[in-house]
Specification:
The chain is mostly beta strands and 297 residues long. Helices cover 7% and strands 59% of the residues.
Length: 297
């Protein structure tokens, strides 16, 4: 029997090779070229295939003008619009945030963005420079009862790595008393604006004192189809300031973004998790919905 096994082992490579000779490997069709919209800083918009792109220039092939070389400093943005023969595709126009938590990507310079969460929370964000943005969030019906101001500075370390710092001040009114708290967060994002991973650590500040609690964030953004993005953002609370009766507190989430030409819709589920001796129901379910709009051309 041992000799039979040895013979099979010796013959197996030859049998595999003969099979490939008899059944030649199937030739895979070349992928259809992806179509892009390239907007220049002078307002010119070009459409075609992106043949090559590096830190100094981009080479595109247009239907009417042929191949064109563009310097990086001429380009305002590049957005994928679809695959030839597969219809229209829309990029994720709002990569500066996952859904609630920020990424290290910055808002586009000179652009104003609007977001609405659960109808009654509104937010505006403006790109001051390529690496600096400012924003305001408020209660849609009565802004003086709940509002926050935030700013984010981010810098590209490489084409696939970006670092950022996000600072926020939030205030809530109780009767005639206004209670405020600050929050600062360090952010690391890897990947590009359509497919990325973000890690963050944040601390709150109140009355000039840094909290003993740390908020850790982890998020994924993946372009799963020409018009859909998958987003998962997750939070965990650590530190000596947590109630001693709690072993863990955090939030898990998953959802999709319906990408459109100038706006997007988010639908998701958030699952707060509280583990400890005093936690009544450790897991609950919260539905989520939001709307995003990029204002202007």
């Amino acid at each position: 029997m041992k000799h039979v096994y040895l013979l099979l082992l010796l013959l197996l490579p030859g049998l595999v090779a003969a099979q490939h000779d008899y059944y030649p490997p199937r030739q895979e069709a070349a992928p259809a070229p992806r179509q892009y919209s390239i907007t220049l800083k002078d307002g010119t918009e070009l459409r075609g295939e992106l043949l090559r792109q590096d830190s100094t220039e981009a080479l595109i092939r247009t239907k009417n003008l042929g191949e064109i070389r563009l310097r990086t400093d001429q380009i305002l943005r590049i957005e994928q619009t679809g695959v030839r023969g597969e219809g229209v595709a829309y990029p994720n126009l709002f990569p500066q945030t996952m859904r609630i938590a920020p990424t290290a990507f910055s808002a586009e310079k000179g652009r104003l963005y609007y977001r609405n969460y659960y109808v009654y929370i509104s937010q505006f964000e403006y790109g001051v420079t390529d690496n600096w943005s400012v924003g305001a969030t408020f209660y849609s019906i009565l802004p003086t009862n709940l509002f926050s101001l935030n700013t984010k500075v981010s810098v590209p370390v490489s084409s696939r790595l970006r670092l950022g710092v996000n600072a926020q001040y939030a205030a809530v009114r109780f009767d005639s008393f206004l209670e405020g708290i600050g929050y600062i967060q360090g952010i690391v994002t890897t990947g590009d604006r359509q497919n990325n991973t973000t890690f963050g650590l944040g601390w709150s500040l109140s009355n000039g004192t840094v909290s003993r609690n740390v908020v850790a964030t982890f998020g994924l953004v993946r372009k799963v189809s020409p018009k859909l993005s998958f987003i998962s953002e997750n939070f965990a609370l650590f530190g000596s300031g947590i109630n001693r009766s709690l072993d863990f507190a955090g939030v898990l989430s998953a959802g999709i973004r319906f990408d459109r030409r100038r706006h997007a819709f988010d639908l998701a589920a958030y699952v707060p998790i509280i583990v400890g001796s005093t936690a009544g129901n450790p897991i609950t379910f919260l539905p989520y919905g939001s709307y995003h709009l990029r204002i202007g051309k």
